Amino acid sequence: MENLDYSVLLYYCYAEIEDPDAYREEHHLFCIENNIRGRIIISPEGLNGTVSGLKEDCEKYMAYVQSDARFAKTEFKVDYFDKHAFTKIHVRVKPEIVHSSLRHINPTIRTGKHLEPEEFKALKDQEDVVILDVRSNYEHELGHFKNAVRLDIDNFRDFPEKVKELEHLKNKKVLTYCTGGIKCEKASAFLLDQGFEDVYQLHGGIIKYGIEAGGEDFEGKCYVFDNRVAVDVNKVNPKVVSKCHCCKTPSDRMVNCANPECNIHVAICEECGWKYEGACSEECKGHPEKRPYDGTGYYQKNTNGYNPYKGLYRQPDARKIKSTIHE
């Protein structure tokens, strides 16, 4: 049996942060000192992160986040892995915790009704219900809820424009879902803003649904934004729904095209992976800059010279910064 000594945490919290730059420094330093790696966004509207670390280090990290009154109600989705799911730590300040065209929407004021996984499961198949996937194409092509309405969007910022295509569903109960719940906070709020009256969201997203409700009727795998790429969700009635980009046989093996100028992220079966040497087509296979294929289709960025302290504004005084901010 695998030794799953590492935790992978997925979380977000909408909360006002008056000085995101100062908090970013404190947060970044804590991650370094406790060997936490991952991607964390800090903005005036809150936190959003996916991180990994040894189980005991992740316990410290969760306690650290929740010890701040602003983030006390942060809910962590916890999965387990045999190693770090990231190679670096990045803590960045951005205008929003999820890139959208909805900066005017404040989900702490009004958003769709949160459904716990078992509530979502009980409601999703009712006749007057529509399940709405608010994720991007490459995510729902890999996996989605049975009978879900899927929007043709490459980025979440395209969601508001696509809502115009849903006018005929205004008399339905609309159940939104995404990976961890964060996109649904603004998506469901925007639907209410546009005149939809009966709007819900899957609290904790697909990941929590898999953990607490067995993932029933989620077909395929869930795309995740770490080195695992895709994770199993459904323990009840699993099904492969994605197809190999090259031969169209069923496959949920996500890879990046070996041609760095293409780099398309699609499902390619193992046979086609070797046939095209990691490329998505004959054209990309023949590209002069094609990367060597090792059978995974994952190309780690060069980490030579990586310095986890990079980005701390006053690096020599980092420890002073930490103590000063807590005073």
UniProtKB/TrEMBL annotation:
Residues 125-218 form the Rhodanese domain. InterPro entries: Rhodanese-like_dom (IPR001763), Rhodanese-like_dom_sf (IPR036873), Rhodanese_C (IPR022111), TrhO (IPR020936), TRHO_N (IPR040503). Its EC number is 1.14.-.-. It is an enzyme of class 1 (oxidoreductase). Gene3D superfamilies: 3.30.70.100, Rhodanese-like domain. It catalyses: uridine(34) in tRNA + AH2 + O2 = 5-hydroxyuridine(34) in tRNA + A + H2O. GO terms for molecular function: oxidoreductase activity, acting on paired donors, with incorporation or reduction of molecular oxygen. GO terms for biological process: tRNA modification. Signal peptide: none annotated. The keyword Oxidoreductase applies. Keywords: Oxidoreductase, tRNA processing. It holds the Pfam family Rhodanese. HAMAP family: TrhO. Belongs to the TrhO family. Catalyzes oxygen-dependent 5-hydroxyuridine (ho5U) modification at position 34 in tRNAs. This is tRNA uridine(34) hydroxylase. It comes from Echinicola pacifica. The gene is trhO.
